[in-house]
Amino acid sequence: MPNSGTTAPSRRSFLKWSGVAAGTATLLTSSTNLGMPGHGPAAAADGMADADTTFWSACVVNCGSRCPLRLQVKDGVVARVLPDNTGDDTLLNRTIRACVRGRNMRQRIYNPDRIKKPLKRVEGSKRSEGKFEEISWEEAIDLVAEKLQYTYDNYGPEAVFESYGSGVWNAHLANSGGWPRLFNLMGGQLNYYGNYSYLQVSQITKYFYGAADEQPSNSIEDSIENSKLLVLWGNNPQETRMSGGGVTYTTAMAKKAGLKIIVVDPRYSDSASVLADEWIALRPGTDAALIAGMIHVMLDEGLHDQDFLDKYCIGFDEDHMPDDAPKNASYRSYIEGKGKDGIEKTPEWAAEITGVPANQIRKFAREVAQAKPANITQGWGPQRHLNGENQALAIYLLACVTGNVGLPGGGTGGRDGYYWPITAWIDDGENPVETSISVYTWTDAIDRGTEMTAKRDGVRGKDKLDTGIKFLLFYGSNMGASQHGDINRTREILDDDSKCEFIVGMDNQMNATMKLCDLVLPDTTTSERWDLVPSEYTGDMAYEIMCEKAIDPLYESRPALEVTAAIAEKLGIGEEFSGGKETTEDWARELQAQNHEENDFIPDFDDLREMGVFRYTDPNGLYVGLKDFREDPEANPLETPSGKIEIYSSQLAELAATWEFDEDRLGDRITPIPEYVSTVEGAEEALAGAEYPLQCIGHHYKQRTHSTYGNLSFNNEAHPQKIWVNSLDAADRNIEDGDQIEVYNDRGRIQSQAFVTSRIAPGTISVPQGAWVNFDDGGTDLGGAVNVLTSLHTTPMAKGNGQHTALVQIEKAK
Ligand SMILES: Nc1nc2c(c(=O)[nH]1)N[C@H]1C(S)=C(S)[C@@H](COP(=O)(O)OP(=O)(O)OC[C@H]3O[C@@H](n4cnc5c(=O)[nH]c(N)nc54)[C@H](O)[C@@H]3O)O[C@H]1N2
Ligand SMILES: Nc1nc2c(c(=O)[nH]1)N[C@H]1C(S)=C(S)[C@@H](COP(=O)(O)OP(=O)(O)OC[C@H]3O[C@@H](n4cnc5c(=O)[nH]c(N)nc54)[C@H](O)[C@@H]3O)O[C@H]1N2
Ligand code: SF4
Ligand SMILES: [Mo]
After folding, report:
1. Are 563 and 471 found together in one domain?
2. Whose CA is nearest to atom 31 of ligand 1?
3. pTM here?
């Protein structure tokens, strides 16, 4: 068979080296732990000889991993940050090396941007003026308690809302900081569904695979063992999974083991440059068209897996449709031009839209169909578009048409699979409020809350909202002025204090969002409190890290849990809130005891403290998505109405018929099959010579995790903010590499340096997302934050963030 990749045996040996046989339950304690001075047996031989003590800590930002850090403390000051020294370089016991961000933790702990005292907005000033006076903790706690009580009394719990925030992620204690527990004890809060990471794929998957979230593909460890081909589809692990414990490491191992890797991305990303044998450079938002063209080739040449489609799916062809479907509504009819649009989806048709030459589409289609098994893994870049739901489903569909779902070495087309860690969390209590909004529509819920409905705005649990948001919390979040769409419009909405009446923020750095708050509370960094930190997307190796309090809280900062406990005390619910626990150590001890009691292989608090990091793997072996369904679809049906994979979904057809859309707006529609939908500000509009002719995406960048670490000079020096511009587009505008350029559209204007390159598809630019905003007097953001340019318009089904869909123009800065 052509394109069969490397031979399996050489790759199998990688797993053997790890000493862990695939498919067996294994606990990997840190046998090579060097121990820690202070409470371990050995001095930190690789660290500072004169450190007083070395403490286990972690980087807990939302990059998808979580890395252990060893903080060396001298005279009460963190003098040095060292990475993990446990595990080894075998695949399932790997050393969890921190990336350049975590290793630079000292600059975050001792940053001049640290919030030092509670700050209150100066009476009579506008939020956008950012004027504050320092107040005491006692005053601050009184103020939150008073405003919270006022909101519950006057507007009810649906007026209370905590914005999404991922600055402290998956750390057992600091993740919530006790805020949801406090709100729930007071009567609840308005919920949100989804997240900024993968909102579209998380909401649409239930209609296709029946899963209530995204449907992960096989793990990369499984691919190393069993695949002939790995396709990274809008998936950039070398930059978005940078921990040594994560997918950066496993994909590098896959490459080393000789697995063939193809990257599909408008950019020649770090993953393309480090891993890829081949790069498919398509226009953003056109993946469903590329896939339609590929499936056309497969049908033409008989390369599709008809047996798989017949047995496990409905909706692919006219012989396998649900009873209520109209004629010629199947995916095959769509490809053959028998559907509503009457257009045959030839590779030439796809080439026009995607910019990928028709012959390359043919070759790629044959390659993917013939490499059996192949793991097609999607990142979340493709679904962060205005047609993101169909983008995600089309990639799933490709895995089905090639019959790869549920097989070792194959995959579902979802993001690479993982073993989720077993952990105990702070109990948030019960939220009596059932109403929820999409995570991306909180600005609407402030601006026009009572107009928002189920059928138009995706309100769930109620036909319409009864109140707008009146009390808003930003905790570990830069959503108010950096990470949400359309920063200028968002700022306008937040500036109007007749709408949202009180905004409280809690962070350890004075970010742009804090500057818009009425009250700012100084949090600690991880080094100043106790915590327990589990892994996240680290393939088949799960782990837990002990975080010790290494230094005293700086300035007047206090850990969130102690602050929420004090607010609860003030409101007369102190005992219910904390049950007698006073410090973060008390909470951590209780949680770890619970975890150890429920799962006896998990170490207790003191043992974990001794180990620093505890690794373990899934007793079921390497992760294979939908394995049970593949083995026996009758015994293990999917949670779809038919129990099968629904390539045509009657439920989606129903939503399409009953939900309300602005008919005139291109792309605002739901389709029962994963067809290509062109949208406002998409590829066609750009090609038609619109006023703003360039498609602007914003990739996740190694300098920062979103905006976190964005204010560190070392990181900025190593990886400055640069806007990727194709050489042809630059030449048309007399722009040279390194020039300062301005990027603009009707929503705003930013300035930054140009990276002129052939590493991005012509007609596309990419502004690394998360830069710290810095507006000049004329309103141009000199920081280069992409969300000055993005839109608040939502995707049709998930009502989510199409933040990679925006049209812009660029020019040399004057
Ligand atoms: N245009 C565009 N926008 C995007 C994206 C995109 O791809 N393109 N991606 C989206 C995605 S996937 C996400 S997840 C969001 C992320 O957006 P956010 O969740 O807002 O993440 P950050 O920007 O990292 O901001 C987190 C804040 O947490 C703070 N923080 C860190 N540690 C602590 C702590 O210990 N305590 C407290 N209280 N605060 C702390 C940091 O200082 C920082 O100010 O952005 C979204 N926005
Ligand atoms: N260094 C670093 N790592 C991070 C983060 C970070 O900010 N910095 N953020 C973390 C978080 S919270 C998340 S959610 C993840 C985000 O992970 P992702 O959402 O997967 O990251 P993105 O960079 O948005 O997109 C991945 C790739 O998709 C490409 N892309 C964009 N549009 C399209 C398209 O239409 N089609 C195709 N085929 N490709 C497209 C981009 O060029 C990019 O290379 O990363 C996590 N890891
Ligand atoms: S940003 Fe992620 S990969 Fe880097 S040190 Fe922190 S947890 Fe590890
Ligand atoms: Mo995310």
Report:
1. yes
2. 167
3. 0.95
